[in-house]
Amino acid sequence: MAFGSFSPGAYTVTYGGNSLGLINDPTRFRRVESAQPITVDQYGDSLVDGVYRGGRVFVMITLAEWTANIRTALWPFNADFGAIGLAGRLLSDIAASLVLTPVALTPAAVLGNNTFTASKAILAPQNQTEFVLGNVHRNIPIAFECLLYNDAGTYRHFALS
């Protein structure tokens, strides 16, 4: 019997319904909460309270292949990978679903509620896409940002199922 409820296991990743192929390194999820700090002069910079202001959700993946699907994820702003996109477009208009599914028969799949679905994800605006061109394996770290969307009256960044 295990000492705890552990859920290791590889995940498959799709973006806009298309596979992003093999993934290198574990996929990382980051949630950053935001609050407006409340300070008063009497206590200097000491935090007295705060107003919750929502947050942001990111998914970091290291892609191990080089395919048309990956190029679309790396550059959602234009069908031509090297051309600039149309300035002024809303990110929500070009975002796509990002789905991470645990590989069957791994503890991650067996324990349940580990399929991650972000209905509106896009290359994070602060992502610095970098990949090597040379006689080496090309690993491509990428960060997606999960935009807020309306799920039958509940506003969310993602859902677990």
Put the structure in a nutshell.
The chain has helices at residues 68-74, 91-94, 107-110; strands at 11-15, 18-19, 23-38, 49-63, 96-102, 116-123, 140-146, 149-151, 154-156, 159-160. It is mainly beta and 161 residues long.
Would you write up a description of this structure?
The protein is mainly beta. The protein is built from three helices and ten strands; from the N terminus they run E-E-E-E-H-H-E-H-E-E-E-E-E. It is globular, with a radius of gyration of 19 Å. The chain has helices at residues 68-74, 91-94, 107-110, and strands spanning 11-15, 18-19, 23-38, 49-63, 96-102, 116-123, 140-146, 149-151, 154-156, 159-160. The protein is 9% helix and 42% strand.
What is the N-to-C succession of helices and strands? EEEEHHEHEEEEE
In whole angstroms, the N-to-C terminal distance is 26 Å
Catalogue the unreliable spans.
none
Helix content: under 10%
Beta-strand proportion? 35-45%
In round numbers, the mean pLDDT is 92
Number of helices: 3
Backbone structural class: mainly beta
- Shape, please? globular
Radius of gyration: 19 Å
Number of β-strand runs: 10
The largest pleated sheet is described as: 8 strands, antiparallel
